[in-house]
Design goal:
The chain has 227 residues and is mostly helical. It has one domain (2-224). It is built from 7 helices and no strands. It is elongated and about 85 Å long. The two termini are 37 Å apart.
Length: 227
């Protein structure tokens, strides 16, 4: 009788362990799916926005060479719709997955609010002061948004306990700024002013593409393939 009780207890422990492991894998895949979908859609938006800006630079109008950036305002809604219609496999709600989602939704909220502020501020300053004074008064959204994205990546690494992701967020933005500055120094001696102006309208799409690839898509793939 005692042996049967021991076997029953051992089997119960095995069942509980298997259930915990299945739940852990399901949670990892669900969190990975969120990161993967958000990363791929962000990368795609960066490419499309850069192409639109580059080829509409001479189109004239209110925002010449900047229409592609308006895609960033609708990107969070596209991500929400995509996640809503993708089968999640009824993964259990986890504290880790919730924190990862809240981290990136917080980033999106801050980035969109600041971008709206910059668009409104720059338009008002241009109308009130004209093209001569405007360069001294306009605001740049890209630097702040990239810094916010780096912070979100670092926090995600802390939550998921992925150390290299933490360091990527801490130092990645600095490396991007250094590379961007060096490339500008080189390009300014190669391209005419018109060419530099055309290239400037694709900023910060390459940086966002890189961060989305390394900070969202790659961790998402790692979590989804986790056994």
């Amino acid at each position: 009788m005692e042996e049967i009780d021991n076997l029953t207890a051992e089997r119960s422990l095995e069942i509980i362990t298997e259930q915990i492991e299945r739940s852990r894998r399901a949670v990892s895949k669900d969190t990975g799916q969120f990161l993967l979908v958000a990363g791929l859609m962000t990368m795609g938006t960066a490419v499309v926005a850069a192409l639109i800006n580059y080829f509409t630079y001479n189109a004239g109008g209110m925002f010449p060479g900047w229409w592609g950036h308006f895609l960033w305002f609708v990107l969070p809604f596209f991500i929400m719709l995509a996640l809503r219609y993708i089968d999640k496999g009824n993964a259990p709600v986890s504290l880790v997955g919730t924190h990862v989602r809240k981290t990136w939704w917080t980033f999106a909220t801050f980035a969109l609010i600041y971008a709206v502020y910059v668009v409104i501020w720059n338009k008002i300053m241009f109308q009130l002061n004209g093209p001569e004074v405007y360069p001294w008064l306009h605001r740049q959204a890209s630097s702040i948004i990239i810094l916010l994205m780096a912070m979100a990546i670092s926090i995600t690494g802390q939550i998921l306990k992925i150390r290299w992701l933490v360091w990527l967020g801490i130092f990645g933005w600095l490396l991007i700024y250094l590379f961007s500055g060096l490339s500008d120094i080189i390009m300014v001696h190669i391209l005419p002013p018109s060419g530099m102006a055309r290239l400037s309208v694709i900023s910060p799409c390459p940086s966002i593409f890189f961060f989305a690839l390394i900070g969202l898509t790659l961790p998402g793939l790692m979590l989804k393939r986790q056994k």
